[in-house]
Amino acid sequence: MKSMILKFLKKTRLIGKKDEIEAYRKNGVKIGENCKFYNVNLDNGHGYLIEIGDDCTLTNCIVLSHDASTKYYFGKSKVGKVKIGNRCFIGMQSIILPNINIGDDCIIGAGTIVTKNIPSNSVVAGNPAKIIMSTAEFKKKHAIYMKEKPVFNTYWKYKTEKDKMKEKELLKDTFGYDE
């Protein structure tokens, strides 16, 4: 019932992102400072088993600290702590399963299913998640691209139609970077 009310309030914009984080904190989730949540679904029943470090961004993802697949056979759900380190980015539609530790400075790519622990300074993607590079390699790669590719400095909300058309044309055959 609580999650239905929270979803209604989010859809009607009666609560904001900070209120979403506070609601999870009240449900026992430990959330560090300066975190950003965008349509996040944290395990309501076992939120007290979830810990998220400082400066993390979670986008339209699911973090589970229980697995009810055992309930039918044994009358009990499997439960496990989830710890997400500091300065992590969890991409859109990723799923973090119970009993997982994600180290500091990790990037979890969109659509990734995390079934095993992820060491610090890793970039992972896939189903199941696989390490594809280190965070240092990721930063170096994109620093080079930002010198070669189009970079746009106006936040999307403030772009004029002319700005959007120019960006669309410049991105015809490549990608770029935006605010």
Features:
elongated; 23% strand; 16 strands; alpha/beta; six-stranded mixed β-sheet; 179 residues
Fold blueprint:
Elements: H1 2-11, H2 17-26, E1 30-31, E2 36-38, E3 41-42, E4 50-52, E5 57-59, E6 62-63, E7 66-67, H3 71-74, E8 78-79, E9 82-84, E10 89-90, E11 95-96, E12 100-102, E13 107-108, E14 113-114, E15 122-125, E16 130-134, H4 135-148, H5 161-170
Parallel strand pairs: 1-4, 2-5, 3-6, 4-9, 5-10, 6-11, 9-12, 10-13, 11-14, 13-15
Antiparallel strand pairs: 7-8, 15-16
Please characterize this protein's 3D structure.
By secondary structure, the protein is α/β, with parallel strands linked by helices. The protein is built from 5 helices and 16 strands. The strands form 4 sheets. The chain has a 6-stranded mixed β-sheet with strand order 2-5-10-13-15-16. Strands 1-4-9-12 form a 4-stranded parallel β-sheet, with helices on one face. About 3% of the residues have low confidence.
Main-sheet strand order equals 2-5-10-13-15-16
Helix-strand pattern = HHEEEEEEEHEEEEEEEEEHH
DSSP strand count:
16
Helix content: 25-40%
Radius of gyration from CA coordinates = 19 Å
Overall outline: elongated
Q: How would you sum up the major sheet?
A: 6 strands, mixed
Structural class by sheet pairing and helices: alpha/beta
Number of helices: 5
Low-confidence stretches are 12-16
Question: What's the N-to-C terminus distance?
Answer: 37 Å
